[in-house]
Each structure stands twice: as C-alpha cells, then as structure tokens.
Amino acid sequence: MMQDKRVAVKVEVCDDYAALSQRAAAIVVDLVKAKPDAVLGLPTGSTPIGFYDALVASGISLARVRTFNLDEYLGLPQNHPESYYSFMKKHLYDRTDLKAENCHIPSGMAADPAAECRRYEEAIRAAGGLDILLLGVGHNGHIGFNEPGAPWDAGTRIVELAERTRQANARFFASIDQVPTRAVTMGIGTILKARRLLLLAAGSGKAEIVKELVEGTPRVGVPATALQTHPDATVLLDRAAAAKLSL
Ligand code: F6R
After folding, report:
1. Where in the sequence is the domain holding 24, given as residue range(s)?
2. Is residue 115 one of the residues assigned to a domain?
3. Which protein residue's CA is at the shortest distance from atom 4 of ligand 1?
4. Is 244 among the domain residues?
5. Would the CB of 223 count as within 6 Å of ligand 1?
6. What is the value of pTM for the model shown?
7. Which of the following is catalytic: 69, 72, 91, 142?
8. Active site annotation includes 140
9. How many CA atoms lie within 13 A of 220 on its CB side?
10. Residue 173 included in any domain
11. Would you write out the chain's pLDDT as a tens digit for each of its 247 residues?
12. Annotated catalytic, 147?
C-alpha cells in the first residue's frame, strides 16, 4: 500500500522566483563545499534557469562534480538547439569549470535505446548514486518525462510523451509537429533512489499540482506524489506556486 510509506514532503516557500533560485543554488553550493565530487541530478525546463544563473554567479568550483540529467528527447542530435544537451551547455556547462567527461545526459540518438537506458542507469550507480536530484514538475504531475501512470519502480527508460507535455514544449519548436514524441528519462525508481530530492516550482500555473503533490494521496496517476514516499524530499516554491497549500 502506497499510503503506508507516506512521509511528509518538506515545503519551503520563498518570496519570489529570484529568491527560490538563490535558495536552490545555496543548497547545491553547500553540498559541493561539503563534498566537492558530489553527484548532482539536474533538470531542464524554464523553472531551473534562475537556479543555474545563481549557481554560476556563486563562483563555486564544479571541477570535480559529476552531473546526470533527468532526460533527453529521443531523435534529437546533441547539437539540435532544443536538445536538453544544448540547454545544459548554454545554461551551465559553458559557464562553469565542470569537466565535459563528468557531464552526463542520456543520448537521444543511440542505435539501441534500450541499451542506452541500461548504460545510463549503470553509470549513475557506478558514480555512487545521486547525492541530490533537482526536479521540476509538469502541470499533469510528470517528473522527468514520467507521465501519469508511469510505474514507480522503473529505471531509465524510453517513454511516449503525453500530448499535453508536447503542447507545453511546443513553444520551443517551430511547430508542434517538430516536438519529438518520445524521450529517454530516468524512471521514478531512479528518481526515488537519489539520496535527496529538491523539486522547484514557481508561478500560479503550478499551484494546483503543487497542492496535489504535497497534500494529495500518493498514486501512480500523479507521478510527483511519489515524492511522498521519499525520506528526504523538499519542494522549493515561490508564493504563487504555494498559494493553494492548506498549511
Ligand atoms: C525537464 C523535465 C520536466 C520539467 C517539467 C517542468 O528535464 O524533466 O519534467 O521539469 O516539464 O518544466 P518547466 O520548468 O518548464 O515548467
């Protein structure tokens, strides 16, 4: 029974998006100071952009840090402007002393995608597991590209994108037809193995799903509620995203 494993998700509310971004960066900076070769799990999307800016501005050395991204579109080459690799290069890799060999993103172009998923999962394990995994959340509750109904014990895998997710991401492409239909993503099982989870959500558009993820019954229909089964999960919110919480 999922409810038996329920643990309260810690909630931190910041005044605004800038404060949220600074706070997320401070958490990661503290971790890297304590463990210079920390293993970070990282998201893309609009929400973490301020966090990457703040992390870069902190001036912390990431020379020994290892990073693993949550996901990548299937069928986009690394150098495609909308690949998650390009996103990471622009917002983080090119602005820090991270070493290229320490930055990991699943390949969206592997000849054998299933083998790529196994390789990625093994690479995370070989690095000692994720010390912290930052996440965003989709309006439908997806985490990574784990859409509603995704199994909670799955490792890195190939998934079909929900239509709503493709529509939400169409803003980055010339037209919806160009948004890939499949992706490689860490599974919810991979996500739950991270030692610490830090989910960022900002803006009133996320208030409903944030309420569901913090206060709703954990269920596979809302992937983000899986955080309630993790012993060390925090959601970092701005006031607008926290507006519907009852506590
Ligand atoms: C990105 C990812 C997605 C996003 C989510 C929220 O790597 O895995 O789950 O975190 O779609 O995206 P934004 O931040 O653009 O609202």
Report:
1. 2-238
2. yes
3. 136
4. no
5. no
6. 0.96
7. 142
8. yes
9. 9
10. yes
11. 444 567 899 999 999 999 999 999 999 999 999 999 999 999 999 999 999 999 999 999 999 999 999 999 999 999 999 999 999 999 999 999 999 999 999 999 999 999 999 999 999 999 999 999 999 999 999 999 999 999 999 999 999 998 988 998 999 999 999 999 999 999 999 999 999 999 999 999 999 999 999 999 999 999 999 999 999 999 999 999 999 999 7
12. yes
